[in-house]
Amino acid sequence: MQVTVVVPTFNEGPNVRELVRRIGDAADGLDVEVLFVDDSRDDTPDVIRQVAGSSGMPVRLLQRPEPVGGLSGAVVEGLRAARGEWVVVMDGDLQHPPEMVPVLLETAASTGADVVVASRYVGGGDAGGLDGRWRHLVSTASSLLARSMFPLRLRNVTDPMTGFFAVRTGSIDLAALRPRGFKILLEILARNKVVVVEEPFVFGERFAGQSKATFANGLRYLQQLTALRFGRMSTFALVGAFGAVLNLAIMWGLEQFGVHYMPAAVVSAAVTIVTNFLLLEHFVFHDLRSEGRSVWKRAAQSFTFNGIEAAVRLPFLHWLVVLTGMPPVLAQALTLVVAFLLRFVFHAQVVYRPRKDAPDRVTPLAGEPSTTTLDED
Ligand code: GDD
Ligand code: MN
Known about the structure:
The protein has helices at 13-26, 44-54, 70-81, 100-111, 132-149, 184-191, 215-228, 231-256, 261-284, 295-324, 328-351; strands at residues 2-9, 31-38, 59-63, 86-89, 115-119, 165-168, 196-200. It is α/β, with parallel strands linked by helices. It has a 7-stranded mixed beta sheet. α5 (132-149) crosses α11. The chain starts with a strand and ends in a 26-residue tail after the last helix. The structure holds guanosine-5'-diphosphate-alpha-D-mannose and manganese (II) ion. Guanosine-5'-diphosphate-alpha-D-mannose binds at residues 8-10, 12, 37-39, 67, 70-71, 74, 91-93, 95, 130, 139, 161-163, 182, 211-213. It is a multi-pass membrane protein. It comes from Oerskovia rustica.
């Protein structure tokens, strides 16, 4: 089996020699080439050429004239130029241990998967190398959101944000990818029907240099999610909006019959909560109802969330206004947005959470090349 290790680099000169040495040691006995896809503005290409000259395994350099699509664009160009039947994508700063390369490939061979994801969040995995609480929080929150938007495609994936994975090039449609920002794995998994398994790994410290992640990358990620799928989340939002209108209509109707506004509010809230649940069952999560829990359990979880949310939102609003001094309407808008996202994530991750595929269900899809549809199944 021929393997290409694709390494995107942006100013990683001091890491190149050590990286190639460790890949060489780890992949001893395998038919491996290393392909650097470089957008550097310093002497990194020279270092790569030097190291290539003295390395025992083939080391290639693809220098891009323009950094189109950033890190993700570089990875896709690497996938296109790779000679290997399998490609392992990894960072050039040694935060991804090269010793995992043969492990990922063995897992691929033993499970028959198309993609093996090196995950920081499964088994013995660890995200220790992420610097700072803030990065940890952002990473966890973005994974949760992605998994809520693609519950089926990502059912076996705990770490869709990782930049370390092995992929069988024949199983994906490269032309369908729209690379942007940092999250190429998500793009691959969302747009292709592939069998995925995970392997834990410990995300280490950078060997040399600095991270290139920026706030702009974070925004690009949200853009990417939006472009990939608004399907489930937008119907979820529609159901919510319908519920609000229904709530007002019932309250107004009851008042016409002379009902006091307090009991009217209680009745309309109760009717709305039940209607919302039924609409979610039929229009938003219909494909996930068979994933285990009974309808009563789902209803209980959904109602509990709504109850707690209603009880917490007002004190939270008060606290926000008093603490930050922001205008109450702005604070209210903020709490509503946060409540919406939390409600969506809770329903996708708890109420309708898909079961992981049992190991015996993880079998290759019969020779069929991948599709590019965004329907989840
Ligand atoms: N060719 C190219 N072009 N490479 C790039 C670019 C670019 O525009 N931007 C970054 N890279 C390279 C870096 O040189 C490095 O080899 C790799 O991409 C990862 O960049 P880092 O700057 O080390 O990113 P990080 O450590 O903050 O992010 C890592 O963690 C993320 C998960 O939290 C990366 O592994 C990401 O891939 C991963 O998603
Ligand atoms: Mn890094």
